[in-house]
Specification:
hydrolase; transmembrane helix; 2 domains; Rhomboid-like fold; Rhomboid-like_sf; 278 residues; mainly alpha; Peptidase_S54_rhomboid_dom; 2 strands; 63% helix; two-stranded antiparallel sheet
Protein backbone atom coordinates (compact mmCIF):
# COMPACT_ATOMS: atom_id res chain seq x y z
CA UNK A 1 0.00 0.00 0.00
CA UNK A 2 1.18 3.54 -0.75
CA UNK A 3 2.29 5.20 2.54
CA UNK A 4 0.90 8.57 1.39
CA UNK A 5 -2.39 7.03 0.23
CA UNK A 6 -3.06 3.93 2.41
CA UNK A 7 -6.21 3.07 0.46
CA UNK A 8 -4.30 2.51 -2.79
CA UNK A 9 -2.44 -0.62 -3.83
CA UNK A 10 1.03 0.10 -5.25
CA UNK A 11 2.84 -2.20 -7.65
CA UNK A 12 6.03 -0.09 -7.90
CA UNK A 13 8.66 0.80 -5.31
CA UNK A 14 10.80 3.95 -5.19
CA UNK A 15 14.32 3.28 -6.46
CA UNK A 16 15.83 5.41 -3.66
CA UNK A 17 13.93 4.55 -0.46
CA UNK A 18 12.22 1.34 -1.51
CA UNK A 19 8.78 2.42 -0.32
CA UNK A 20 5.69 1.62 -2.42
CA UNK A 21 4.45 4.49 -4.59
CA UNK A 22 1.03 4.73 -6.20
CA UNK A 23 0.71 6.35 -9.65
CA UNK A 24 -0.01 9.77 -8.11
CA UNK A 25 3.17 9.63 -6.02
CA UNK A 26 5.48 8.32 -8.75
CA UNK A 27 7.99 10.51 -10.53
CA UNK A 28 10.09 9.26 -13.46
CA UNK A 29 13.83 9.19 -12.75
CA UNK A 30 16.94 8.44 -14.79
CA UNK A 31 16.57 4.83 -13.71
CA UNK A 32 13.14 3.58 -12.65
CA UNK A 33 10.66 5.52 -10.52
CA UNK A 34 11.11 7.68 -7.42
CA UNK A 35 8.50 8.83 -4.92
CA UNK A 36 7.64 12.51 -4.50
CA UNK A 37 9.32 12.67 -1.07
CA UNK A 38 12.67 11.52 -2.44
CA UNK A 39 12.41 13.91 -5.38
CA UNK A 40 11.81 16.85 -3.01
CA UNK A 41 14.66 15.81 -0.74
CA UNK A 42 17.03 15.56 -3.71
CA UNK A 43 15.98 19.02 -4.87
CA UNK A 44 16.72 20.50 -1.42
CA UNK A 45 20.16 18.90 -1.31
CA UNK A 46 21.14 19.89 -4.84
CA UNK A 47 23.49 22.90 -4.99
CA UNK A 48 21.68 26.03 -6.16
CA UNK A 49 22.69 27.58 -9.46
CA UNK A 50 24.15 31.08 -9.36
CA UNK A 51 24.35 33.88 -11.89
CA UNK A 52 27.64 35.49 -12.87
CA UNK A 53 27.12 38.04 -10.07
CA UNK A 54 26.07 35.56 -7.41
CA UNK A 55 22.29 35.81 -7.70
CA UNK A 56 20.40 32.58 -7.12
CA UNK A 57 18.92 31.33 -10.39
CA UNK A 58 15.26 30.58 -9.77
CA UNK A 59 12.62 29.15 -11.99
CA UNK A 60 9.29 30.88 -12.44
CA UNK A 61 8.35 34.55 -12.67
CA UNK A 62 10.34 37.45 -11.15
CA UNK A 63 8.44 37.61 -7.87
CA UNK A 64 9.94 40.85 -6.54
CA UNK A 65 9.42 42.76 -9.78
CA UNK A 66 5.81 41.58 -10.04
CA UNK A 67 5.19 42.49 -6.39
CA UNK A 68 6.48 46.04 -6.85
CA UNK A 69 4.42 46.52 -10.00
CA UNK A 70 1.35 45.16 -8.21
CA UNK A 71 1.82 47.51 -5.24
CA UNK A 72 2.19 50.51 -7.54
CA UNK A 73 -0.90 49.60 -9.56
CA UNK A 74 -3.04 49.01 -6.46
CA UNK A 75 -1.81 52.27 -4.96
CA UNK A 76 -2.62 54.16 -8.18
CA UNK A 77 -6.15 52.75 -8.22
CA UNK A 78 -6.59 53.86 -4.59
CA UNK A 79 -5.40 57.32 -5.59
CA UNK A 80 -8.18 57.48 -8.18
CA UNK A 81 -11.02 56.05 -6.11
CA UNK A 82 -10.26 58.12 -2.97
CA UNK A 83 -10.22 61.42 -4.79
CA UNK A 84 -6.59 62.13 -3.89
CA UNK A 85 -6.86 61.32 -0.18
CA UNK A 86 -4.59 58.28 -0.57
CA UNK A 87 -2.06 60.49 -2.37
CA UNK A 88 -2.03 63.07 0.42
CA UNK A 89 -1.39 60.36 2.98
CA UNK A 90 1.83 59.14 1.37
CA UNK A 91 3.32 61.81 -0.92
CA UNK A 92 6.64 63.46 -0.14
CA UNK A 93 7.47 67.13 0.26
CA UNK A 94 10.58 68.48 2.01
CA UNK A 95 8.44 70.53 4.37
CA UNK A 96 6.84 67.42 5.92
CA UNK A 97 9.61 64.85 5.41
CA UNK A 98 11.38 65.64 8.67
CA UNK A 99 8.30 64.92 10.81
CA UNK A 100 7.04 62.03 8.66
CA UNK A 101 10.17 60.33 7.25
CA UNK A 102 8.24 57.30 5.94
CA UNK A 103 7.18 59.53 3.06
CA UNK A 104 10.72 59.33 1.63
CA UNK A 105 9.79 55.79 0.57
CA UNK A 106 6.01 55.71 0.26
CA UNK A 107 5.94 58.46 -2.37
CA UNK A 108 7.72 56.06 -4.75
CA UNK A 109 4.58 53.90 -4.84
CA UNK A 110 2.39 56.82 -5.93
CA UNK A 111 1.94 58.38 -9.37
CA UNK A 112 0.08 61.23 -10.99
CA UNK A 113 -3.47 60.55 -12.07
CA UNK A 114 -2.38 60.51 -15.71
CA UNK A 115 -1.87 56.89 -16.81
CA UNK A 116 1.20 57.92 -18.84
CA UNK A 117 3.24 58.41 -15.67
CA UNK A 118 2.63 54.98 -14.16
CA UNK A 119 2.73 53.21 -17.53
CA UNK A 120 6.19 54.57 -18.30
CA UNK A 121 7.61 53.71 -14.88
CA UNK A 122 6.08 50.24 -14.78
CA UNK A 123 7.29 49.52 -18.31
CA UNK A 124 10.82 50.59 -17.33
CA UNK A 125 10.58 48.38 -14.25
CA UNK A 126 9.33 45.47 -16.35
CA UNK A 127 12.24 45.87 -18.80
CA UNK A 128 15.03 46.16 -16.21
CA UNK A 129 13.63 44.42 -13.14
CA UNK A 130 13.60 40.73 -14.14
CA UNK A 131 17.17 40.86 -15.44
CA UNK A 132 18.52 42.58 -12.33
CA UNK A 133 16.50 40.36 -10.01
CA UNK A 134 18.01 37.29 -11.65
CA UNK A 135 21.57 38.60 -11.80
CA UNK A 136 21.72 40.12 -8.30
CA UNK A 137 19.33 37.89 -6.42
CA UNK A 138 16.23 38.98 -4.58
CA UNK A 139 17.63 40.65 -1.49
CA UNK A 140 20.14 42.82 -3.37
CA UNK A 141 17.48 43.75 -5.92
CA UNK A 142 15.07 44.76 -3.13
CA UNK A 143 17.82 46.82 -1.46
CA UNK A 144 18.68 48.46 -4.77
CA UNK A 145 15.08 49.40 -5.52
CA UNK A 146 14.15 50.67 -2.06
CA UNK A 147 17.34 52.67 -1.52
CA UNK A 148 17.08 54.16 -5.01
CA UNK A 149 13.51 55.19 -4.22
CA UNK A 150 14.65 56.84 -0.98
CA UNK A 151 17.62 58.33 -2.83
CA UNK A 152 15.21 60.00 -5.23
CA UNK A 153 13.41 61.71 -2.36
CA UNK A 154 16.69 62.67 -0.70
CA UNK A 155 17.97 64.06 -4.00
CA UNK A 156 14.87 66.22 -4.29
CA UNK A 157 15.24 67.35 -0.69
CA UNK A 158 18.90 68.31 -1.04
CA UNK A 159 18.38 70.18 -4.31
CA UNK A 160 15.00 71.73 -3.50
CA UNK A 161 16.59 75.04 -2.48
CA UNK A 162 15.68 75.20 1.18
CA UNK A 163 12.61 76.55 3.00
CA UNK A 164 12.76 79.86 1.12
CA UNK A 165 12.10 78.17 -2.23
CA UNK A 166 8.82 77.01 -3.73
CA UNK A 167 10.16 73.49 -4.24
CA UNK A 168 10.40 72.99 -0.48
CA UNK A 169 6.60 72.90 -0.31
CA UNK A 170 5.92 71.10 -3.61
CA UNK A 171 4.73 67.48 -3.21
CA UNK A 172 6.38 64.87 -5.42
CA UNK A 173 5.25 61.35 -6.32
CA UNK A 174 6.47 58.58 -8.58
CA UNK A 175 8.80 55.62 -8.90
CA UNK A 176 11.12 57.53 -11.23
CA UNK A 177 13.90 57.79 -8.65
CA UNK A 178 13.84 54.03 -8.14
CA UNK A 179 13.67 53.43 -11.91
CA UNK A 180 16.70 55.65 -12.48
CA UNK A 181 18.47 53.65 -9.79
CA UNK A 182 17.75 50.50 -11.80
CA UNK A 183 19.04 52.25 -14.92
CA UNK A 184 22.32 53.08 -13.18
CA UNK A 185 22.73 49.57 -11.79
CA UNK A 186 21.91 47.76 -15.03
CA UNK A 187 24.42 49.95 -16.86
CA UNK A 188 27.24 48.64 -14.65
CA UNK A 189 25.93 45.08 -14.60
CA UNK A 190 25.87 45.00 -18.39
CA UNK A 191 29.40 46.37 -18.59
CA UNK A 192 30.62 43.92 -15.96
CA UNK A 193 29.20 40.96 -17.88
CA UNK A 194 30.62 42.14 -21.21
CA UNK A 195 27.32 43.20 -22.79
CA UNK A 196 26.48 46.28 -24.82
CA UNK A 197 25.28 49.04 -22.50
CA UNK A 198 24.94 51.85 -25.07
CA UNK A 199 21.14 51.61 -25.19
CA UNK A 200 20.95 52.17 -21.44
CA UNK A 201 23.31 55.16 -21.67
CA UNK A 202 21.10 56.72 -24.36
CA UNK A 203 17.95 55.94 -22.35
CA UNK A 204 19.37 57.58 -19.23
CA UNK A 205 20.44 60.65 -21.22
CA UNK A 206 17.08 61.10 -22.93
CA UNK A 207 15.01 60.68 -19.79
CA UNK A 208 17.25 62.92 -17.73
CA UNK A 209 17.07 65.60 -20.43
CA UNK A 210 13.27 65.38 -20.43
CA UNK A 211 13.29 66.13 -16.72
CA UNK A 212 15.46 69.22 -17.27
CA UNK A 213 13.54 70.78 -20.13
CA UNK A 214 9.93 70.04 -19.17
CA UNK A 215 8.15 71.43 -16.14
CA UNK A 216 6.42 69.24 -13.59
CA UNK A 217 9.18 66.62 -13.57
CA UNK A 218 11.43 66.30 -10.51
CA UNK A 219 14.83 65.88 -12.17
CA UNK A 220 16.38 66.09 -8.71
CA UNK A 221 14.72 62.78 -7.80
CA UNK A 222 16.00 61.24 -11.03
CA UNK A 223 19.53 62.33 -10.17
CA UNK A 224 19.31 61.08 -6.59
CA UNK A 225 18.06 57.66 -7.65
CA UNK A 226 20.65 57.42 -10.40
CA UNK A 227 23.54 58.15 -8.01
CA UNK A 228 22.34 55.46 -5.59
CA UNK A 229 21.92 52.98 -8.43
CA UNK A 230 25.42 53.64 -9.75
CA UNK A 231 27.02 53.24 -6.31
CA UNK A 232 25.17 50.05 -5.42
CA UNK A 233 25.50 48.71 -8.97
CA UNK A 234 29.26 49.15 -8.81
CA UNK A 235 29.46 47.39 -5.43
CA UNK A 236 27.20 44.52 -6.44
CA UNK A 237 28.71 43.99 -9.89
CA UNK A 238 32.43 44.41 -9.17
CA UNK A 239 32.74 42.88 -5.71
CA UNK A 240 35.29 40.02 -5.64
CA UNK A 241 33.55 36.65 -5.63
CA UNK A 242 35.11 35.54 -2.35
CA UNK A 243 34.00 38.77 -0.61
CA UNK A 244 30.77 39.40 -2.49
CA UNK A 245 28.47 39.12 0.51
CA UNK A 246 30.60 41.33 2.75
CA UNK A 247 30.99 44.02 0.10
CA UNK A 248 27.32 43.94 -0.83
CA UNK A 249 26.10 44.20 2.76
CA UNK A 250 28.66 46.86 3.56
CA UNK A 251 27.84 48.97 0.51
CA UNK A 252 24.12 48.72 1.23
CA UNK A 253 24.64 49.85 4.82
CA UNK A 254 26.95 52.71 3.81
CA UNK A 255 24.48 54.01 1.22
CA UNK A 256 21.61 53.83 3.73
CA UNK A 257 23.63 55.75 6.33
CA UNK A 258 24.71 58.31 3.72
CA UNK A 259 21.10 58.97 2.72
CA UNK A 260 20.05 59.45 6.34
CA UNK A 261 23.03 61.76 6.93
CA UNK A 262 22.27 63.83 3.81
CA UNK A 263 18.64 64.28 4.87
CA UNK A 264 19.61 65.13 8.47
CA UNK A 265 22.20 67.72 7.40
CA UNK A 266 19.77 69.31 4.95
CA UNK A 267 17.08 69.66 7.60
CA UNK A 268 19.60 70.95 10.13
CA UNK A 269 20.67 73.63 7.67
CA UNK A 270 17.04 74.46 6.91
CA UNK A 271 16.27 74.86 10.61
CA UNK A 272 19.14 77.34 10.96
CA UNK A 273 17.81 79.32 8.01
CA UNK A 274 14.36 79.29 9.59
CA UNK A 275 15.70 80.65 12.88
CA UNK A 276 17.58 83.43 11.09
CA UNK A 277 14.53 84.40 9.05
CA UNK A 278 12.36 84.23 12.15
Amino acid sequence: MCPRHPDRVSYVRCQRCGRPACPECQRPAAVGIQCVDCVREAARQAPSQRSALGGRVRGGPPVVTFTIIGLCVVSWILQLVTGGEWTRLWWFAPVIGEDEPYRFLTSAFLHSTSPVHILFNMYALWVTGPFLEQMLGRWRFVALYLLSAIGGSVGYLVLAGGPTSEGWYQPVVGASGAVFGLFGAILLVLRRTGRNAMQIVVLIGINFAIGLFFTGIAWQAHLGGLVVGLVLGAAYAYAPKERRTVVSVGATAVVAVALVAAAWLTYASADQVGHLVG
